[in-house]
Amino acid sequence: MSGFDLARFMQRGTWGHGGRLGISLHAFGDDWVEMALPYSTDLIGDEASGVLASGPIIAMMDITTSLAVWQRVDAFVPHATLDLRIDYLRRATPGRTVIGRAECLRVTRSISFTRGLAHDGDPADPIANVSATFMLPTGAYPGSRGEGQGEGAR
C-alpha cells in the first residue's frame, strides 16, 4: 500500500468529534483497523454505575468502519455512512478502554461493506457487533471494478 497513510492521517492533529472523544489508533492492517476509546468520566452515561454512554462507542465504530474502507482502497475517500447497525450485547466495564475493530468485507464501484466489534479487553466477550455500509456520493472507489453491480446496485 502506498496511497493512504493511516498512521500519518491520525497524527495530523484535531480530527473532529473523534479527537474530542479521545479516540486513537490502536492497530491496523491492509483491510482492518482497531481504534481505542479510553475510559473518561466525561463520557459516562449512567453516573450511578460509571458505564460509558453508547454515543461515544457508536461514534468510534462509525469512524473505525470508515477507516477500514480507506485502508482497503488505500486512499482517503470522503464517503457517507449509508447504514450503521450496532447490536449491543452487554455494557462496557467501567474504567476500561473500549477497543473497536472493523474490517472491510467488500468494495463495489460506489458502495463498501464492513463489519466489526467493540470490546473492553477480550474480543471473545464483545460489547457490541457492528455492520456498516458506506456510499460515495460521486465517482468510484479507487481500484474498484464494479463487480457484481447490476443497474440497480450503485
Short descriptors:
two-stranded antiparallel sheet; 8 strands; six-stranded antiparallel beta sheet; 20% helix; elongated; 154 residues; alpha+beta
Short summary of the structure?
By secondary structure, the chain is an alpha+beta fold. 20% of the residues lie in helices and 34% in strands.
What does this structure look like?
The protein is of the alpha+beta class and 154 residues long. The protein is 20% helix and 34% strand. The protein is built from three helices and eight strands. The strands form two sheets. A six-stranded antiparallel sheet has the order 1-2-6-7-8-5. Strands 3-4 form a two-stranded antiparallel sheet. The longest helix has 20 residues. It is elongated and about 50 Å long. The protein starts with 5 loop residues before the first helix and ends in a 19-residue tail after the last strand.
Topology of this structure?
Elements: H1 6-11, H2 17-21, E1 24-28, E2 32-37, E3 44-46, E4 51-52, H3 54-73, E5 80-88, E6 98-107, E7 111-119, E8 128-135
Antiparallel strand pairs: 1-2, 2-6, 3-4, 5-8, 6-7, 7-8
